[in-house]
User: What shape does this take?
Amino acid sequence: MTISFGSKLQTNWDWRAAFNFMFGGSGSALLLMMAIFAAPQAAPLALALVALVLVGFGLLMVWLEIGRPWRFLHVFFHPQTSWMTREGSVGTVLFPVTIAGALMHSVMLLAFAAVLGFVFLYCQARILKAAAGIPAWREPAIVPLIISTGLVEGTAIAMMFFQGMNSAALWMPGLFTLFIAARLWMWFAYRDALARGKAPAGTLQALTKMHREFIIAGCIVPLLCVLMTFAFELGSWGTFLGGAVALISGWRLKYAIVVKASFKQGYGIGKLRKGRPIIKPPVRRAGDPIQL
Amino acid sequence: MTRYVMTADLNRCVGCQTCTAACKHTNATPPEIQWRKVLDVEMGEFPDVERIFMPVGCQHCADPPCMHVCPSQATAQRDDGIVTIDYDLCIGCGYCMVACPYDARYKVDEARFAYGKKPSLTEALRHDEGRLGVAQKCTFCADRIDEGTAKGLTPGVDPEATPACVNSCIANALQFGDIEDENSNVSELLAENTYFQMHEELGTETGFYYLWNEK
Assistant: This one.
């Protein structure tokens, strides 16, 4: 017999943390997508700046949330196991590399920035997965979901930008469609995994509440807008509308996961055992801070 | 090797919250912060209903998720299994708080006192600015253990070397000791009773065992 009880919504990470995942995820994926969209040339400086502003704004929000903001350098102390340290470290390198690449029109540097952007996005996904106290975050299916929605958002911004510059290629909406489909698939996989894993009722309710909106605004509307625009040559409005809706729906999704669906594990009564327990000594991993 | 663990006998706990009060008194935690608290749990369906009292707090996991996620290395682990927080290193990011499956960590951003903005004499004396804006939790009274063992005392046996909550327990429901020692009180209790560890499926290998003999 196992019993769980006492799950409640976490309030330690609020909208400021959510903003990091929302804007940081979009900005970092944009670094990757702008490099792909602009290839074989260097991505434009303006787009690089948009990406950095998004990432920087997200990190600023996190900085505003921490209890001891002037100790922020301590965030770099634990790269061995902390995905937050890794995110911060990648974010620190990402800024100078992107700025230098954009100013020097260096395809190589911007390609490196694109890789850093993807790693930053991956770190964000792993930050959530490592939060073992929140069933909605620790579910492994959150990693592909966060990555896929980041890619949708980055692609949406890049596509809108290149459409605005009249240099959008036909394969761009194709890629956008692919990522939208992947995000939809990951969304279903994520919800199924949470339901199978008996996530707290509050988590499932919060996600169910936004399911229909996400299907319509996150998938159907953007796909219809973008595909109709390119299929019938309706001008650029469809790309802008579809891109914007896909972008905002991605932000809404991450806001809901971080702020609304983040119910704690709660307490529990486990399976009764008898007999002297097998004693597990403290687990040691490389880089663990050991206090002797 | 030494591995300190705590046991809570759910058949004995009467939910008096004396452990909570003793912990607050010992560690001078502000209002609403309870490193050791006791849950009042009702289980079953009428008429087959049972009520238990369940002490909770930091479980001092052998594989603590809070330590692995901590970006500043503020959360560490001693060789005796006690999970610690260095208040001078902690940046108060709250990552450990969402990583802890036992809801055992707290963060207080502003000084708060029991009776309004002005601290009482005791609160003024014991207020620690270093604990503001950082994570805090049960320490298993590590300082008492260290001072006690330095005097040759045995944690779990000698009150001077034993956590305050265990010392205060009126029903002897809470016990503390070295699980590596086969003759310790906790080892004997675990050998004689049925027990469980909370959220065992998460693989955290807690240092907190709940003794419970179903009737």
Q: What stands out?
A: The beta strands of chain B are 4-9, 37-45, 48-56, 75-78, 83-85, 106-107, 135-136, 174-178, 194-196, 208-211.
